[in-house]
C-alpha cells in the first residue's frame, strides 16, 4: 500500500507493541494512558500527530502548534533518560497508524477521549473502524470528568467532584531499550523552523510552568482574584493564568483542583481560591456540552436563532479583527490578544458582544478568529461561550456590554488602553474612553492633529446597542426558539439551571 508517497508494506514477524497517542494531554503526571502503557508487558511508542487536515483548519494557529511543540520538547528532555521519546508525526492519523502497524503489530492504543470539533469526531470514527479491522484495541480514558454518551446532567456534578477528589495517577517510568523507529512523516523543515520559535509575549509552554503559575497564584497573585477578575490590566496577574496549560493538557483539571484545594486550607485568601475551584468546574461544564453536541462549533445550538438574519458587513468585521473600531478598550483588547494570546473573561465577552450586538454580525464571523488568537483555545469552552455571549442560545440572559462603560469601570485611568494603543498616549485621562468626544479646540490644545492615526468610531454605540437588544429579545418570543429552549435545558443543564456567567 502507498500512503502519501510512502510505501507501506507489512513486515513479516512484526514485533508486538502498544502505543500512547497524546492529544490535549501533553504531560507526564496524572496520565492514565501512560500508566497503562508502562504497566503493560509490551514495549510502547508515544506519538503526537500534526495532522495536516487539522492544523490547516480555521480554528488552528501557529501559536497553538508552538505551544504544543515546546511542551513536547520539555517532556522529551525528561523521559529521554528512560529510553522514551514523543515522536511527532506530520500525517493524517490513519496514515500514521497504518505505517506504525506495518512495522510493528500494534496491540493497544492508549489515549484520552477528545471532546473535539466535528473534524476530529469524524476522524475518530474512521479511526475506530480502522483499529477494529486491524485487531487493535483502542482504550480511551475519560478526560477531566467529562462523560461520554450522556443524555442529561442527572448526577453529573456529584460524579465530577468524585473524579476530582480521587487520587492522582502517579506516573513512573522504567528504563528500557528505545524501540527502533524511523519516522517517515517528520515535521517538514519549513514548519519546524516556525515551531522552534517561541514569541516572548506568550506564556511559556510546558508542565513545569503550569505548576509555577499555580504556585505563585496560591501564594500571592490570587489575593485579589475576585476583585480584579473583570479588569483587563490587573487580572493579568491576579487570575490563575493556567488556561493554556489546561487546554493543551500540560496539567489535568484534577491536578489543578487538588493543588489549589490543598493550598486553600492554609491560605489567607481562601474565598478567592474557592472561586477559582468553582471555575474549574465551569470549564468542564462547558466542555461537557460540547462533548454531547459538537455542532456548537458552527450551528446555533438553539436552531430558532438561525432565523435571525445578520447582514454581513466585511469592513466592520475587518475593523474589529484589526483593532481599529475607534473604541479604545475594544481595540486594546484585540491588539493585546494578538501580542500575548490572553485576555480575561469579561473582555472576551465584550469583544464578542461588540461584534455580535453593536456591529450586529453573525457570531460565526468572529469565532475562528478569536480561537486562533487564544493561546488557551479549547473548543469545548470557546464555542458554547461564544454562542452564549452572542445571545443565540435562548436560555441565557443576553448581556450587551457597552464598551465605553466597560472602559470607565475597568480601566478608569486608561493604563491598559495606553499600553496597547500607543497612538492614544497623549490623550488626557478624561477623554481616553471616548477620544472622539474631543472638540477640535481640545484636540488642538493637547497637540493632536485633526487626522489623528486613531480612527473615528465605526458605529453609534447607543443606537446600535438598542437595535440589537430589540432584535434579540424580540426574537426570544419566537415559537421555535421557545421549543428549542426546552430541549437545551433538558440536555445541557442540571435541573434546568442557568449557565454560569462571570
Ligand atoms: C467568548 C469566550 C471564549 C472563551 N474561550 C476560551 C477558550 O478557548 N479556552 C479557555 O480556556 N477559556 C475560554 N474562555 C473562558 C475564560 O475567559 C478563560 O478560561 C479564562 O479567562 C482563562 O484565564 P485563567 O486561566 O486566568 O482563568 P481563571 O479565572 O484563573 O480560572 C481558572 C480556570 O477556570 C476555567 N474558567 C474560568 N472561567 C471560565 C468560564 N467563564 N467558562 C469556562 N471555564 C472557565 C479555565 O479553565 C481557567 O483556566 C472563553 C470565554 C469567552 C467569553
Architecture overview:
The chain folds into 3 domains: 2-171 and 182-189, Rossmann fold (3-Layer(aba) Sandwich); 203-292, Serine Threonine Protein Phosphatase 5, Tetratricopeptide repeat, CATH 1.25.40; 297-496, Orthogonal Bundle (DNA Cyclobutane Dipyrimidine Photolyase, subunit A, domain 3). Helix content is 48%, strand content 7%. It contains 23 helices and 7 strands. It has helices spanning 32-39, 52-55, 62-79, 93-103, 118-134, 156-165, 189-196, 207-219, 225-228, 235-238, 243-247, 253-264, 270-292, 314-322, 328-340, 345-358, 367-373, 379-390, 403-410, 415-420, 440-445, 461-475, 479-492, and strands at 2-3, 6-7, 15-22, 44-49, 86-89, 104-112, 137-141. The strands form 2 sheets. A 5-stranded parallel β-sheet has the order 5-4-3-6-7, with helices on both faces. Strands 1-2 form a two-stranded antiparallel ribbon. A hairpin with a 2-residue loop joins strand 1 (2-3) and strand 2. Helix 8 (207-219) runs parallel beside helix 12 (253-264) and helix 13 (270-292) crosses helix 18 (379-390). It is globular. The structure holds flavin-adenine dinucleotide. Flavin-adenine dinucleotide binds at residues 239-243, 246-247, 276, 279-280, 282-283, 286, 344-345, 348-349, 352, 374, 376-378, 381-382, 385-386, 389, 502.
Beta-strand proportion:
5-15%
Helix content: 40-55%
Strand order, main sheet: write it out.
Answer: 5-4-3-6-7
CATH class type of the largest domain: Mainly Alpha
Distance between the termini: 54 Å
Pfam family, one: FAD_binding_7
Cofactor: (6R)-5,10-methylene-5,6,7,8-tetrahydrofolate; FAD
Keywords: Chromophore, FAD, Flavoprotein
Family: Belongs to the DNA photolyase family.
